[in-house]
Amino acid sequence: MRLNLSLQAPEVVRVISTRAWALLVVMVIFLAGAAGAVHVSVAVLSEEAEALERVGAQRMMAQRVVVLAEQLAKPNLAAQQRQRVQAELETMVARLRSESQWLIEQDDVPAEIASLYATAWTDESGVMARFYQNLRQILDGRGDVQALNHREAMLFNEEAAKRYQRHAALEFQRLRLVSTLSFVALMGALAGLFLLVLRPGIKVLEQQIHRQTVLGDAISQSGHGVMLVDSNGKIRFANAAAEALTGYDVESLLTQDLNGLVFSGFGSNGAETILDRAFRSSWRGDVRLVRKGGMMTWAEMVVSAAPVDGKFLVIMFDATERREAQSKLRQARERLFSAIEAFDDGFALFDLEERLLVCNRRYVGLFPQLEPWLTAGTPFTEIIARMTKLGLVETELDDDKFLSTRLALFRAAQGENELRLTDGRILRCLTRRTPEGGRVSVLSDVTDSIQTRDDLRMALDQAEAALRSKAAFLSAMSHELRTPLNAIVGFSQLLETTPDGQYGPKQRRSVSHILNAGRRLTEMVDQVLELADLQDGKLDLQIEPFDVTGVVQDCVHELSSMVTEAEQEITVSVGDDAIPVLGDSARVAEILHHLVLNSSKYGQAHGRMELTVRRTENGMVRLAVSEDGPGLSPELQEQLFRPFGRVGGDSGIGIGLAISRILTERMAGRIGIDCLPGQGSVFWVELPAAKATGTGGGADLSESPGQPVRQRS
Predict the structure, then answer these.
(1) pLDDT of residue 325 exceeding 60
(2) What is residue 609's DSSP assignment?
(3) Paired strand residues for 418
(4) Residues above pLDDT 90, as percent of the chain
(5) Is the Cβ–Cβ distance between 673 and 684 less than 8 Å?
(6) Which of 168, 326, 428, 551 is 20 to 30 A removed from 343 (C-alpha atoms)?
(7) Residues 51 and 106 sit within 8 Å (Cβ to Cβ)
(8) pLDDT, mean of residues 411-422
(9) Between 99 and 359, whose confidence is greater?
(10) DSSP single-letter state for residue 573
(11) Residue 694 in contact with residue 610, Cβ under 8 Å?
(12) What is the pLDDT of residue 227?
């Protein structure tokens, strides 16, 4: 489809129009003169023809009156017929006289003819005068037909007719000459019009048509929508891209108006407002394009006044992807700014020239006095200079040295440094380089953190001093306690070995109680000292693979008498194969000892306990001691593994399970309890398993099944 636009060059059109109008005026004047001359000549010829007709009629009438006169002279003519012939003769004679008089008096009759007729009619000796007199005499009955010289009259009229014919021939030749000259002049004017106006105009039009064709093809094949609308907004042209943008075919689109296709921020008559603005200067903006079916899409539209008067050229671009990209970019910026504003620390972004691009409110809040300068475009050097001029920073350096130092740290963009303010605040400065060469600066108020750090350091020093004091106290107390305890236990054993008969059963039971209490106190002192050593990190472990089933059997055998005294029963559930564990066997035996004692303590009288050993799916070995006691609530379970955490009516000091937890974690294991109130408890410990070798007694450490799970309570 080609765009039907006029692309005339204004100057060429003006020159051609001026020449054309000048030639047309000359042609009109000339043609008017020629037409007037032809009209006059034609009128003259018309009158000449009438006169010539009358001249010819004179001859015919002369012949007719002669015939009528001869008829009237016949003696045997009936009266009625005579009367009719006489009346006709009178009429013909009167007509012959009146028409000859007309030829004499008519101005358009040539003078030669008029003079000839005047001589023939007015002169008494004239031919026609004599002929007329003879006719009148015949009508009066006094004349003789034989005396009527009609031949002379005929010759006269023939001569007059010949003369008039020659005159008419000359007039016709003159008219033909005028017509020929007019035609030649018209053809010359037309040739001049073609050479001076039409030929240059045709060349210009050919050039414009070529440009119009090229432009029309370019517009039609353009990927952008192009429409031509009139001043009322009616669409007069649309290319294929415009059809694709609007969803209408060309026939339907040409029935639409721009106001029905465009939905803009100017209201219901948005297209009229756009055309009004485009009339003064080109208008460009985004509009919502109402497609066929009512769906809207974004389009960028450029409207300008077209070269054709009263029309506008509308170019449309599909702006959907750009608008979506802008929306996503705007959302990303909003999210970025929201994230920046959400920082608890001050955030600032500088460009490649070290000028401030953006900063959050927290950054401004750190330096409220600098707010007038914390705007986009302010150089970093200006900000630092203002800090020193306003006395915001605490430094022993002079202004120039401080500025150069801060600028060097800012440009290096590595590590962290502190900035101390005169109001006592301490800021931690972190600067990093962006891929574009700019800088990101993050300022954190670490005044409280540093104060807390100092307080923690002081508290740690105090705790370490307390631990050292505790260790010294426990070490001293261990010696002070062990000496009397050893004496009590020793003398109790001597009393217990005294033969029967020296004191009775009651005294022997008292000695047994003293001995058991001494041993219990000794065990407590040992546990307290062991816990203190463990908390101080004084622990030597011999980590190696060993068969845990043997340790379990030894532990049960050692504690069997204690279990029997508690009127309880314990069973062991292990496989026939050896189960290698990676750890310290003596410490594992100690852990099992504590677990069995606690199960016995929290189990019911005449109850039973079970000690099981099995492998788990995560490469661990699980040792579990279950009992059928009343169980523990979750609140009490949390206290079991704390130092000195006594539960219910526990008669101990509550450090056995705490020691077990520390030992288990040091051997990369886990310890815990599973129980529900009223359903008994299961104390368990998991230790890393070691893969057994072919000998069955050792374990291959290089093939141990992965890293164990560490867990601290």
Answers:
(1) yes
(2) E
(3) 428
(4) 10
(5) yes
(6) 326
(7) yes
(8) 88
(9) 359
(10) E
(11) no
(12) 84
Give the residue with greater pLDDT, 4 vs 226: 226
Secondary structure string (H, E, C) spanning 404-426: HHHHHHHHHCCCEEEEEECCCCE
Amino acid making up residue 95: R
Structure confidence by residue, pLDDT tens digits, 270-300: 777 788 777 777 888 888 888 888 888 888 8
Q: Are 704 and 691 in contact (CB under 8 A)?
A: yes
686-to-313, 556, 637, 664 alpha-carbon distances in Å: 85, 18, 18, 8
Look up residue 708 and give its DSSP letter: P
Mean pLDDT of the chain: 77
Residue 575 vs residue 376, higher pLDDT: 376
Rounded Cα distance between 4 and 228, Å, is 10
Q: 598-616 in b/e burial notation, b at 16+ Cβ within 10 A?
A: bbbbbbeeebebbbbbeee
pLDDT of residue 385: 92
The total of other beta-carbon atoms located within 10 Å of residue 683's CB is 28
Cα separation values, 669 from 575, 685, 687, 692, 711, Å = 21, 7, 5, 19, 7
Report which of 333, 356, 335 is spatially closest to residue 346, judged by C-alpha positions: 356
Q: Which residue's structure tokens are 């040295």? A: 401
Label residue 711 by pLDDT band (50, 70, 90).
very low
In terms of Cβ atoms closer than 10 Å to its own Cβ (0-12, 13-18, 19+), residue 487 is exposed
Q: Across 457-568, where does the E strand assignment appear? A: 544-547
Q: What number is the average pLDDT over the span 672-701?
A: 71
Which position has the higher pLDDT, 545 or 161? 545
Phi, psi of 288 (to 5 degrees): -90, 120
Q: What are phi and psi of 568, to 5 degrees?
A: -125, 170
Nearest to 362 by CA among 424, 445, 426: 445
How far is residue 219's CA from residue 623's CA, in Å, rounded to a whole number? Answer: 87
For the chain, give the percent of residues with pLDDT over 70. Answer: 78
Q: In sequence order, which ranges of 281-319 are alpha helices (DSSP H)?
A: none
pLDDT reported for residue 439: 92
In three-state form (DSSP H/G/I as H, E/B as E, the rest C), the secondary structure along 324-352 is HHHHHHHHHHHHHHHHHHHCCCEEEEECC
Other CB atoms within a 10 A radius of the CB of residue 292 amount to 14
CA gap 203, 193 in Å, rounded: 14
Would the pLDDT of 172 be above 70? yes
Rg (CA), the chain: 70
H helix intervals, 548-584: 548-565
CA dist., res. 209 & res. 618, Å (int):
88
Q: Is the pLDDT of residue 459 over 60?
A: yes
Domains identified in the chain and CATH numbers: 10-192 (1.20.120), 222-326 (3.30.450.20), 343-445 (3.30.450.20), 452-528 (1.10.287), 539-703 (3.30.565.10)
What confidence tier does 5 reach under pLDDT thresholds 50, 70, 90?
very low
- Can you list the positions of beta strands (E) in 550-669? 569-573, 580-583, 608-615, 620-627
User: What is the SS3 assignment for 160-218?
Assistant: HHHHHHHHHHHHHHHHHHHHHHHHHHHHHHHHHHHHHHHHHHHHHHHHHHHHHHHHHHH
Q: Are 655 and 527 in contact (CB under 8 A)?
A: yes
| Bridging pattern class, strands 608-615 and 569-573 | parallel
Which of 293, 311, 314 has the alpha carbon at shortest distance from 303? 314
State the pTM of this model. 0.37
